[in-house]
Amino acid sequence: MDTRIIGIDLAVTAAHKAIVLDQASNRFVSPVLTFHTDPAEMDRLLTTARAAASPDVQLIAVLEATAMSWFTVGVYLERQGVAVYRVNGQQVADLRKVYQRHAKSDRIDARVLARLYVTHPEQLHRVFLPTGPQMALQRACRELHRLTGLIAASKQRLLTTDQFAWLGLSDILPPYEDAARWVREQWYDPWRVYEAGEAALAKAWEAASPIQPADTAWIPALYGRARQIMALYDDAHRPDYALLQASVAREQARLKTAEEQEHFLRLKVVRPLYRQLHPTRHLETLRGVGQDSAAVYIAFIGDILRFPSLHDFRGWSGMIPFSRQSGEAQARGLHITQAGPDLVKATAFMDTNVARLYDPQIAVIYYDQMMNKGKHHLQAICACATHLLDRVYIILKEQRPYELRDVDGTPVTKQQARAICQERYHVPDEIRRRNNVRQRKARIEEQTERRYQRRHKDE
Question: Which letter does DSSP use for residue 12 in this model?
């Protein structure tokens, strides 16, 4: 069977570029073609690709993941019987350096993409085209992640402002509850608080509190803190508390909006879509994996059968370290690859940090990494996250719930598993301090200094 490979360099607003390579002769059989995301123009591209080929010619398209252009083009080509492969920009950049080191253009990239299928077919994966609900869940999960980050950033900004403006409010009031928000919006100026007095503050809070009777036990501490701040600042360096109050009020308004959107998105969009796509909810039987984490895995993994083996799934996830080996030497402790969706890696990391406390088979890996291999916490969690994703793969592949087991394979209850993790695989604090990144760096610098001194002493 003849095989023609179409290398497509996608654009976001401009025209796409494509070129056709005949696999048998390893020669380009078309000039660089220009087309837009239009069915008629893509049909002309396919007609050109089939020209002078056998009737049963197999068409393969290799395209780069450019914004969302790959989705519309990929969907149409798949409908026309074309096998579509999507690659990341780093693969294209690496091969371009070999193909033509000192030049870059859309025409060169189209040729490089076509050559990729000939030179590295084992590194290419068929494009995963999510269904409507899957794409909606993907986008909702990303939006939820962004909102979570916005909320965390807003809270941190409020705490930072409180720290210099009020020497911190968190030791007087819970920083994100109604009373603290009311103080920021109405009484953020210590001089105004002092002039009003405790009684006026209590009366104002009793009138504004959403909970009756209002708790006013914190007001004397706030009044005392106002006196302390007044003693710290002179007139020349006194902050403009009117502007500070307006600033924190705006920040709280943004925080409130983000929290409301996050709540709505989580309960009304993400979880219903997740339950629709994964009705068995077997993923939630994994310790550390809740509905929101499971939704991320379901959204981005899609059809688990597109990964023929666990090795393929691991490579896609990106939770595996780089490999560097030469002769008999092999580098260790390298960072993880950049493959796979970032949200999947981040979710697996967070889930593993919980799973190690409740799943003996993951806890023993974490224990070994920390106690025997000298890894710090982040390295150990990344090593365990690979095993957590292995379990995600098996659960989805075999469509069955996860069963907690001891390290010897004996089934255990949740309570027994937790006890095993605490008793056998607890990492002492002194080991954590020993493996701390800063401590490791200090030891390396100390060893380097000793070697330097010995060398100069011998000279």
Answer: S
